[in-house]
TrEMBL record:
<keyword id="KW-0233">DNA recombination</keyword>
<dbReference type="Pfam" id="PF00589">
    <property type="entry name" value="Phage_integrase"/>
</dbReference>
<protein>
    <submittedName>
        <fullName>Tyrosine recombinase XerC</fullName>
    </submittedName>
</protein>
<dbReference type="InterPro" id="IPR044068">
    <property type="entry name" value="CB"/>
</dbReference>
<dbReference type="InterPro" id="IPR002104">
    <property type="entry name" value="Integrase_catalytic"/>
</dbReference>
<keyword id="KW-0131">Cell cycle</keyword>
<feature type="domain" description="Core-binding (CB)">
    <location>
        <begin position="1"/>
        <end position="104"/>
    </location>
</feature>
<keyword id="KW-0229">DNA integration</keyword>
<dbReference type="InterPro" id="IPR013762">
    <property type="entry name" value="Integrase-like_cat_sf"/>
</dbReference>
<dbReference type="InterPro" id="IPR011010">
    <property type="entry name" value="DNA_brk_join_enz"/>
</dbReference>
<keyword id="KW-0159">Chromosome partition</keyword>
<keyword id="KW-0238">DNA-binding</keyword>
<dbReference type="InterPro" id="IPR004107">
    <property type="entry name" value="Integrase_SAM-like_N"/>
</dbReference>
<feature type="domain" description="Tyr recombinase">
    <location>
        <begin position="126"/>
        <end position="307"/>
    </location>
</feature>
<keyword id="KW-0963">Cytoplasm</keyword>
<keyword id="KW-0132">Cell division</keyword>
<dbReference type="Pfam" id="PF02899">
    <property type="entry name" value="Phage_int_SAM_1"/>
</dbReference>
C-alpha cells in the first residue's frame, strides 16, 4: 500500500488540481518507482528486486532528509538502467516537482524542497509526424474495407477535421452534439466547443442512421461511438482500427496513430491559414507553446519562399 502522504497527494491532484485519472496513474507510477529506488539505495538492496520492498518503509523523516543530489541519482538510474529517454525523465521531473511542492506548501511535511532547483532534461524539438492532404484522402478511402464503414469513417473524419484527442473521441456522448457544434471534454475536464464542418456533419448523419445496430439492452446508451457489443469504444480499440485502416488504404504510413491524425489536422489547419490562437483553442492547449510545434514549415516551402525574395534577382 502507498504511504498516506502519497495517497493524499494523488487525491489532491484529481480533486483540487483537476488532473485526469490517466495523469494520476502516471504520477502514481513515478512515485512508486522513486520511493522504491530510495528505499533500495538507503538499505543497500539489489535494484533488480526493489519491486518487493514495502513503500511504507520510507517515512516522513526520510522525506525530510532528501537532497537535490538524491533526485538526480534517481534520474540517472532511470536513464542508465531503465533506458528512459528525455521525455520520460522530463515527466518524472514534473512529478517530483509537483509532489515536493505539495509536501512543503500544502502539507507542511518538509521545510526544504529538494526539487526546487531540479531541472528537466533538454528535449530535442521533433517535428510532428503528419499526413499531407493527398495521404489524408487515401487514408480515408481505406475505411471502405472496414466492417463498420459509417462509424469508422465518422470517427476518422472527426480526427482529421477537428484534431481531437483519442480520449476525447472515446468520451463523446450523443448529447455532445448540438446542431453543428460538438462539445468536447478535454484534459483537466475542461470543455470546449468545436464547429462541425460539412464533411463532419455528413459523416455523422450517415452514422447516426445506423447507430441503432450497435445498441444493446444491457449496453451503453449514451456513448456516441459504440462497439459491436454495444459498449463504449476504448482507446486501444481505436488505435488498432487506425492501424488497420492505414494498412487497408495501402498508405502504410509509418507508426500512424490517433495522435498522428491529430497532428495531421493541426498541420493542415495551420497551412490553410489558421492563426496560432485559433489553433490553440481548437486543439484545447492550455499553453500556446504546445501549439507552436505545428507551425513548422517544410524545407521545400522554405526554399520556395527564399527563392521569391525580391533581392534574389540579377
Amino acid at each position: 500500500m502507498l504511504p498516506k502522504y502519497v495517497r493524499d497527494f494523488l487525491v489532491y491532484l484529481t480533486a483540487i488540481k483537476g488532473k485526469s485519472q490517466r495523469t494520476r496513474k502516471e504520477y502514481e507510477y513515478d512515485l512508486r518507482l522513486f520511493l522504491r529506488f530510495q528505499i533500495a539505495i538507503s538499505h543497500d538492496l539489489d535494484l533488480d528486486k526493489m519491486n518487493e520492498v514495502d513503500l511504507n518503509l520510507f517515512t516522513i523523516e526520510d522525506l525530510q532528509q532528501l537532497t537535490l543530489e538524491d533526485l538526480y541519482l534517481f534520474l540517472e538510474y532511470c536513464e542508465v538502467k531503465r533506458g528512459n529517454g528525455a521525455a520520460s525523465r522530463s515527466r518524472k521531473v514534473a512529478t517530483l516537482k509537483s509532489f515536493f511542492n505539495y509536501l512543503k506548501s500544502k502539507k507542511r511535511l518538509i521545510t526544504q524542497n529538494p526539487a526546487d532547483e531540479l531541472e528537466a532534461p533538454k528535449l530535442s524539438k521533433k517535428q510532428p509526424v503528419y499526413m499531407n492532404i493527398t495521404e489524408s484522402h487515401q487514408f480515408l478511402e481505406g475505411v471502405e474495407h472496414s466492417r463498420h464503414p459509417e462509424r469508422d469513417y465518422c470517427m476518422m473524419t472527426f480526427f482529421l477535421n477537428l484534431g481531437i484527442r483519442v480520449s476525447e473521441l472515446c468520451a463523446l456522448d450523443v448529447d455532445s452534439v448540438h446542431d453543428d457544434i460538438l462539445t468536447v471534454r478535454g484534459k483537466g475536464d475542461k470543455e470546449r466547443n468545436l464547429y462541425l464542418n460539412e464533411q463532419c456533419l455528413e459523416a455523422l448523419s450517415s452514422y447516426i442512421k445506423i447507430r441503432s445496430r450497435y445498441l444493446q439492452v444491457s449496453g451503453e446508451q449514451q456513448a456516441l461511438f459504440l462497439s459491436q457489443k454495444g459498449t463504449r469504444l476504448t482507446r486501444q480499440a481505436i488505435s488498432n482500427l487506425v492501424r488497420k485502416i492505414n494498412q487497408d488504404s495501402g498508405l502504410e504510413k509509418k507508426k500512424l496513430t490517433p495522435h498522428k491524425l491529430r497532428h495531421t489536422s493541426a498541420t493542415l489547419l495551420y497551412k490553410s491559414g489558421a492563426d496560432i490562437r485559433s489553433l490553440q483553442q481548437i486543439l484545447g492547449h492550455s499553453n500556446i507553446s504546445t501549439t507552436q510545434i505545428y507551425t513548422h514549415v517544410e524545407n521545400k516551402e522554405i526554399q520556395r519562399v527564399m527563392t521569391k525574395h525580391p533581392l534574389n534577382k540579377k
